[in-house]
């Protein structure tokens, strides 16, 4: 029975992996877009993490996770006799399938190794497989998702090493590589290994060859990582002397950046209890109660605790920072023994994950990716203004960047937005009616959620002197950043944001004086 349930949940995970929800801009701008610009001719937009004087993001973990699949995909594309570049949307879906496979294979495999009791293992695997976090966040290209796999396999390798009676030179070397990979992926990674790492001390004292293997592998992996980063961030050729005199050490830059309160203020401050009281319940739902009421003490739970404690020290705290703790906690809780209590808890667990799975996996900013695909096929599109949405990934425009300029004004006030749109709008022509506008040389598009009621009077009455022609609509789009309970009230806000869900593209024109 549990095997059939597990296989069904794997299919659910695949469904959400192939849904175009957009959970956070970082899933594109901190990973795929960077490497896509290196391998393909797609124009990309590097964020401040990669363009600052002291860059804080490493490309070392990006190459094996995203670079190798992209290279393989390009090789298959060329090998099959195809001309030109691979459509970027094909690369996008390939990476989504890749993240599904990594989650399905590596995460579940690590759980099988970490949970040794067969009965407890079945429960742990089903809990993780039925979590909306696994369906959504873990199948998206987040550095946090990669960190989850690195933490799980670090714990699995630690367990292999300390439980073996032999000197595990290969396992120790692999652990060292994973640790270096994890640190260059996210500077928060060591927080999850503070307590589990203590188990290695007696092992290294008894078996010094394992310690030597760990040191050598760590130095080698660190050298490769620093070399790749230095080469990526340096325009001139990287010689040995330059590498040792001017190395780019991104984790060190990242640590320095996050230790400055003024830097964190730009991302938003949170109280020290944000992770414990809000983010953990948001990710785990009813399982958070089991964590406090029926925990199963294990190496996994100690790893999760150390991670939460260290991450709570930093004042900027987002829920996705705790992704590595989700499989660790879900595999370390005990279900209620009372049959009635178990049924009630299971029902709440299923409803919680279905609700958040649909919201986060299908509707959350779900129109941005299809919107970029739509714009890439518009021959007249030269200006695209995105309002009240997340930043769109421009690498999905399929070479359209040569003529199409993207304006990201997501937080701009309504009147200011109209002035911005009015300055970019093209002149109204008779050909602007129907589909004949596609033959024009220039076109301005405004992409905004339907829940933005500010636009209603302007779309219907053209009171601003602008003409709004709706040319595209995507219904499975929800803008949760447009909630305004204070001014609009609870039910009015919900009815507006949920009842008027969807993303719309208008072609904007204006009256121009005749010459």
UniProtKB/TrEMBL annotation:
Keywords: Endoplasmic reticulum, Glycosyltransferase, GPI-anchor biosynthesis, Membrane, Signal, Transferase, Transmembrane, Transmembrane helix. The chain crosses the membrane at residues 58-77, 89-106, 169-196, 208-228, 344-363. GO terms for cellular component: endoplasmic reticulum membrane. Its EC number is 2.4.1.-. GO terms for biological process: GPI anchor biosynthetic process. It is found in: Endoplasmic reticulum membrane. Residues 1-17 form the signal peptide. It is a multi-pass membrane protein. Pathway: Glycolipid biosynthesis; glycosylphosphatidylinositol-anchor biosynthesis. GO terms for molecular function: alpha-1,2-mannosyltransferase activity. InterPro entries: GPI_mannosylTrfase (IPR005599). Belongs to the glycosyltransferase 22 family. PIGZ subfamily. This is Mannosyltransferase.
